[in-house]
Amino acid sequence: xxxxxxxxxxxxxxxxxxxxxxxxxxxxxxxxxxxxxxxxxxxxxxxxxxxxxxxxxxxxxxxxxxxxxxxxxxxxxxxxxxxxxxxxxxxxxxxxxxxxxxxxxxxxxxxxxxxxxxxxxxxxxxxxxxxxxxxxxxxxxxxxxxxxxxxxxxxxxxxxxxxxxxxxxxxxxxxxxxxxxxxxxxxxxxxxxxxxxxxxxxxxxxxxxxxxxxxxxxxxxxxxxxxxxxxxxxxxxxxxxxxxxxxxxxxxxxxxxxxxxxxxxxxxxxxxxxxxxxxxxxxxxxxxxxxxxxxxxxxxxxxxxxxxxxxxxxxxxxxxxxxxxxxxxxxxxxxxxxxxxxxxxxxxxxxxxxxxxxxxxxxxxxxxxxxxxxxxxxxxxxxxxxxxxxxxxxxxxxxxxxxxxxxxxxxxxxxxxxxxxxxxxxxxxxxxxxxxxxxxxxxxxxxxxxxxxxxxxxxxxxxxxxxxxxxxxxxxxxxxxxxxxxxxxxxxxxxxxxxxx
Length: 501
Description:
Blueprint: H1 2-11, H2 13-21, E1 24-26, H3 34-54, H4 64-73, H5 78-106, H6 114-135, H7 141-155, H8 161-169, H9 176-208, E2 224-226, H10 227-252, E3 267-268, H11 276-286, H12 293-318, H13 330-362, E4 368-369, H14 397-406, H15 408-411, H16 436-444, E5 450-452, E6 455-457, H17 470-481, H18 493-500
Parallel strand pairs: 3-4
Antiparallel strand pairs: 1-2, 5-6
């Protein structure tokens, strides 16, 4: 008892704990309130397992895959911790989605809890970025090709797209610098932001207290319960059940590790379940007529996702209805229900499209195919429109492999280009005439504005002379000149030699 008094006098910890445990819960304890605590538990588990994995992981293109496999095969219970980390990411994002959905349906984002809602939305975005940056780290086939598409998506963001792409890639091709950038973001930058946001969210919650059930009555008139012991028991039980489910999944369905990343192989990556809807948008955009594909891609990768996040952040000010009762908010709840149905529909469409593409890829000799999730490693990553393995519509297979390894991250796996940065190769009239201009661009690079089909692009094309052989340059130019509707004549190694002199 003397020790308790000593601590209280010097830290105030005892009284602070008592205040925390004796907090009133409007309407009494309820399992409806457990999502926040369960999400916090999942976050803590991710931090603990992530720290363990950093003791063995080596972030470089020569050691990333090998160190991941070493964790699987040789570290005591390493496979279990890695699997738990994988399923923990899934659980954390699922719980965060459910928590925000509950807050939205209950109208608990209304005054005076607007800032708490905004912090919660930003927490979700940061959590998704955490998953995205963790996806590349195993450096297997799925991680490489899916991350390649993700970097390409980042480059399509106006103004900041190109600097972001250059920072993430660290060079003209993905390699050790790319892994180091993703590793730093995943292990240090994003977790630090996540923890700060979580503390801010809890502090604001403590200040405002729980909003209670979705009714308009003053919460002070509701039956009051205490956080301890009833609500804390429910929170603890929910977190324990989440942990049990994660352990079972970690043992029964551990995440697989594909072959080491090989950019010369064709491959169909598989996005995490929480990015399947985005993948569906990208596939739909990629299947539209070639003339509008760049604009459609911009909507699918920037405008729609960015607009959705913006609307969520501004929701407390956009929704001027003061009532929290469900029956008095039919429009908002109806739009929410329709949005969920669309997201589920896009996810199902994506799943079916991926399975079909994998089956087609499996029928191609020498092609590598990703196993369906959770067979892919990492936390979360949006895979872009038909990506990874570029379909060899025409041209040499060697040219297709070179394009996938070196060009697809900027020009798109299907030659659609990147809006505002890199021009489309599909339907590009410059590829159908004299090949000398194209040979010179590939050899010596190009910078500054370039107009294709009436649209201006301002990306930087690196010089490939010295990085690719003349034969490889001839092969890749032949491939793009005879793919995606182009009908240019083949280019020989001798043609490239003439231009390079």
